[in-house]
Amino acid sequence: MSRAGFYLARTLRREAPLSALSVTRADLFAELDGKRVALVGNARSLAERDEGFEIDAADLVIRINRAPMPASRTHGRRTDWLALATSIGAEDLQRIGASRILWMSHKRKRLPWSVATSPGFYLHPLGDWVALRDRLGAPPTTGAMMIDLLAASGLASLRLHGFDFFASLSLTGSRRADQVPHDFAAEKAFVERLMTEDDRVSQAGV
After folding, report:
1. pTM strictly above 0.70
2. What does the DSSP assignment read for 111-173?
3. Of 70, 75, 139, 149, whose CB has the highest number of CB atoms within 10 Å?
C-alpha cells in the first residue's frame, strides 16, 4: 500500500486495507506459543520495586504505550513488543527498540504510517476491542486489551508487572482515575478473575 492509500484508508475508516498491513492473529500466537511473557504496565508503584531482573529474564517482554523505563533495577532493559494505543515519537520508538509493534486502539485515525509499515506490525481487530469494552462496561486500557489477547494464546506463563489499576497513577501522566475513560475497578476484577481461572497468569508485587 502506498502512503497516500494508507492515509485515505485511515481517513475513511476502511478496515480491510489497514488489516492487510497486519500479521494475522495466528502468526502472533505462533510466536507466543510456549513462551514465558512479562507484560510491563506503567504504574508509578513499579518504580519502588526491584522487578527489573525478573522482567528481563522472561522469554518475551512486552511494554505499553510510551514504555517508561526509569531504572533497569525496577523496570528492566529489554522490550521485544510494544503495545500502542497512542501517538509516539520517533525518539521514543528508537529508545524502546521493540521488534514488533501492536496497535491496540480502535482509533484508526491515530495510527501512524511508520507504525503500520513496521516489521511484524499487528492491528488489533475492532471486534475484539468492542467485545472487551462490553465486558468491562467501559473502554479498555491498553493493558487490559493485552492481557485479554495474551491469555487467549498458548503462552506458558504471563507475569504482570506495574499493574495496580491506577492506585498510584501512571508514570506517563498526571491524570487521576476520574479523568480518564476507563473503569479500573472493573479491570481489576477482570484480572483477578482471570488469575483464579488460569494458573498461567500471575501478578508481581502482590
Report:
1. yes
2. --HHHHTSTT-EE--HHHHHHHHHHHTSPPPHHHHHHHHHHTS--SEEEEES-STTTT-BTT-
3. 75
Tens of pLDDT along 114-161? Answer: 999 999 999 999 999 999 999 999 999 999 999 999 999 999 999 999
Residue 58 CB neighbours (<10 A): 21
Asked if 39 and 160 count as a contact pair (C-beta separation under 8 A), the reply is yes
Angle at 143 (CA atoms; ends 135, 58), nearest 5 degrees: 130
Nearest CA among 95, 99, 45 for reference residue 74: 45
Residue 177 has pLDDT above 80, yes or no: no
Alpha-carbon span 142 to 131, nearest angstrom: 14
| Triad 126, 80, 101: Cα angle to 5° | 30
- Which grid cell is 170? 501512571
Mean pLDDT (the chain) is 93
Predicted confidence band of residue 110 (pLDDT cuts 50, 70, 90): very high
Give the strand pairing for 81-84 and 36-40: unpaired
